[in-house]
Write a structure and sequence with these properties.
Blueprint lengths: L1 H17 L5 H4 L3 E7 L1 H17 L2 E7 L5 H7 L5 E6 H11 L4 E8 L3 E3 L14 E5 L2 H13 L4 E2 L11 E3 L5 E5 L13 E4 L1 H6 L4 H4 L2 E2 L7 E6 L7 H10 L2 H11 L4 E2 L2
Parallel strand pairs: 1-2, 1-3, 6-9, 6-10
Antiparallel strand pairs: 3-12, 4-12, 4-13, 5-10, 5-11, 7-8
Helix pairs in contact: 3-9, 3-10
């Protein structure tokens, strides 16, 4: 037993001498962050910053979603550390309706919301009685109606994101509205005269907001896309590293060069 003890002590002394010389990944536990994101541009931006985070000892695992509900639910349920896909008005409405307390970590970019069509080439050609598809979630549905109202296609009794088709007070073209899940709107383009589509889904479907949209929001909007976490982990050092990487000069250049104005950095 005494011999074993001396061997153990010698081994411990050896490792204590050499541990400071080991690479960071071997000497320290690696941080792993699992982040939910929609495919374009969010997951693409996260893929871009993965190497920079790896050098800081943070492994980024990206889980891709095609809807707006599960990424928030899975953060709230601690299946994800954070998500990156939404703007603050949507987050606020989600928290209120679902009883969650998810929080904004940092703002990254704006995606101008647009109106698209396969049947007309400019908005002046929109016929009387046209069918218009809009998102069926509360904030983006209101956002779609506000964009149409801003271009004189209708009037609303409430000028905010809570607006629904029931709030239309004047509809000179007698537009008919179909409320659909946001992710399905690009696939519905051939079935309607006009569709109001979130830019992430437009880009994922091969649509260019800058060249294909018949109507497009001003990039100076309230709809900044944000990194979202829980109150218990929002200030974790690894998440702070992620937030810094998302708002670095290198990420700004990547967004500007890759998306050509369809996605605009806000930092």
């Amino acid at each position: 037993m005494q011999k074993f003890s001396r061997i153990t002590q010698a081994a411990l002394m050896f490792f204590s001498l050499w541990l400071p010389l080991l690479p960071f990944s071997a000497a320290h536990a690696e941080e792993i962050l699992t982040i939910g994101a929609t495919p374009v541009p969010h997951a693409e931006i996260l893929e871009f910053i993965k190497p920079a985070l790896a050098k800081q000892g943070v492994t980024l695992r990206i889980k891709v979603f095609t809807d707006y509900v599960q990424p928030n639910l899975q953060v709230a349920q601690k299946h994800l550390d954070a998500n990156f896909f939404q703007h603050k008005p949507y987050l606020d409405e989600f928290n209120q309706s679902r009883g969650t307390t998810l929080s904004n970590v940092i703002g990254v970019h704006v995606e101008p919301f647009g109106a698209y069509s396969k049947k007309i080439r400019n908005i002046a050609e929109l016929p009387v009685g046209a069918t218009v598809a809009v998102p069926n979630d509360a904030t983006n549905g209101g956002r779609a109606l506000l964009l149409l109202a801003a271009h004189g296609l209708l009037r609303l009794k409430t000028q905010n994101l809570a607006a629904t088709p029931h709030d239309i007070t004047d509809n000179p073209k007698k537009l008919k509205f179909r409320e659909l899940e946001a992710a399905t709107l690009p696939r519905a383009l051939g079935q309607v005269d006009l569709a109001l589509i979130n830019t992430n889904y437009a880009l994922d479907a091969g649509l260019s907001p800058m060249t294909d949209a018949l109507l497009l929001e001003d990039v100076r909007s309230l709809y900044v896309n944000i990194l979202v976490a829980r109150p218990d982990n929002a200030n974790h050092p690894a998440l702070k590293k992620l937030a810094a990487a998302l708002t670095s000069p290198e990420t700004r250049r990547f967004i500007q060069e890759r998306y050509k104005g369809a996605v605009a950095p806000v930092f």
